[in-house]
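Database export, one record per block. Field names are fixed; values are copied verbatim from the stored entry.
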Amino acid sequence: MIKQFGISFVAGLMTLSTAEAQTNAADSVMNHAGGNRLSVGGYGEVAYSRNFYSDNGNRYTNPQKYKNDPSHGRFDIPHAVIYLGYDFGKGWTMGTEIEFEHSGTGSSIEYEADEAIEFESETERGGEVELEQFWLQKNFSKALHLKMGHIVVPIGLTNFKHEPLNFFTVYRPEGERTILPCTWHQTGVSLWGRAGNFRYEAQLLAGLDAFHFNRSNWIQGGTTSPFEFDVANKYAVAARVDNYSVPGLRIGISGYYGQSMHNSVPHDMETGDAKNIKGNVYIGTLDFTYNAHNWIARGNIDYGYVSDAEKIAGYVYPNTSLVKPYESGNGKYFGSHAVASMIEAGYDIFSQIPSLRNDNKKLYVFGHYEYYDSYLNATTKQWTNKQIFASGLNYYPVKEIGIKAEYNFRKFKSGYNNEPSINIGVVYEGFYL
């Protein structure tokens, strides 16, 4: 699958060492096997949820009012992705990842002859279509690759391994996808490679936009641009190192630094004292994956800080006092610190049944725990402080397909209503050429 690591992909079966398999999963897009120049693959998720709590947007503002609201359900296609790659030869390759989120998006124009005799534009579907990866790469050696274009930013475990067979829960782990862009992708330049038991990556990117930070999701919206281009008045750097010394175990660290103010349009819109606001974003993460002896375990801890958060909130949302804007009840205001942590472990019970083990079927019984807070130092409005308890099953009839079921319990601090749910999902991930 990934030529630069000497990995082959034959008839849907990967013959890899454990370390190579882990590295291959991380670099999910491509490459080329058996001399084939074209690679085609993808992954997808279909999910059903029944949520036993209110879906009213004010349920955290007035918890008692919505305590006894009825449950609600939903079907969803969180992600459907197509990989396309091509090997031009002489070390030059191309990769793309086209993602349809929540069934994509759609609109139509209708001729309303029975109303005002006019054409009306209607939104038919509320999802998104994104070009998540689009890059050219020059492979100099196993230890050095230069990637240029739209790339995944591997900060945190979920961004590093975001495909649906890389987590037990039906949806991606909640903490990281809440406080960070997920999957985090931006246009930039990347140097990466493998040396011994280490894999490294360093990236140069455009800075985030502080005007899209908020209480609920911290910096998640910082990659959003309403324009036909990404503003790059300020720059950022991201780096990641992973170690595979212990068979079956990968341990990784990643970090990010960039300035988030003065990275919007028009460039001179910040005036007066706002010109001195930096909005420096610092993120550090530690994560691991263990896959051996019929066990799979994963975990991460992410911690982040934005400088001048109080000044940014006061400038971006001027209707609030500059004294302590982050204590406003409005969910848009954000704090300087955020944290996300997760650990999960599952055991393959089919490994103890010879006929099922020999047929490569797997059934993992798993437990999952998260703690995260998108507004770590808030003294009021503490609904951003959450714990997740989940347990369930993952059944793999074949290597590329998973059927998931879980009970999920979102626990808040006292004063807010806890949020239990049941989730069922069907996922796939593979290469077809």
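Remark 1: Confidence is low (pLDDT under 50) at residues 1-26, 320-331.
Remark 2: Residues 2 and 323 are 53 Å apart (CA to CA).
End of record.
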